[in-house]
Write a structure and sequence with these properties.
The chain is built from 4 helices and no strands. The chain is mainly α and 103 residues long.
Length: 103
């Protein structure tokens, strides 16, 4: 539950005002698009958009980390598709890789 009562009230007011418009003449898919867009807009106005946060050190190691992360991802994907002791060892090696940058 949010503690921003004023923002919640503003969202409710905006949403109610926007959805009170007559949409009876629209097709079902157009009604859905209207409801979806209206709800998103009403939420963005009082609450805003959360910005993705990335660690400040990440860009410095971007070229080194991406291949390691991809290797780990593929090892996990392989293990999930066909669990075996061999793939589990591969996954463990990928997770404990010491080839990564020292941060």
């Amino acid at each position: 539950m949010t503690t921003h009562a004023d923002r919640v009230n503003r969202f409710n007011t905006l949403l109610k005002a926007s959805l009170d418009m007559t949409i009876d003449r629209l097709q079902a898919n157009e009604q859905w698009e209207h409801i979806k867009t209206t709800t998103r807009t009403a939420a963005m106005t009082p609450f805003g958009k959360k910005r993705a946060q990335r660690n400040k050190w990440y860009p410095a190691y971007d070229g080194k980390l991406d291949p390691l992360l991809e290797t780990k991802h593929l090892a996990l994907q392989d293990f999930k598709e066909s669990p075996s002791a061999k793939l589990q060892q591969t996954l463990r090696r990928a997770r404990s890789s010491e080839d990564g940058p020292k941060v």
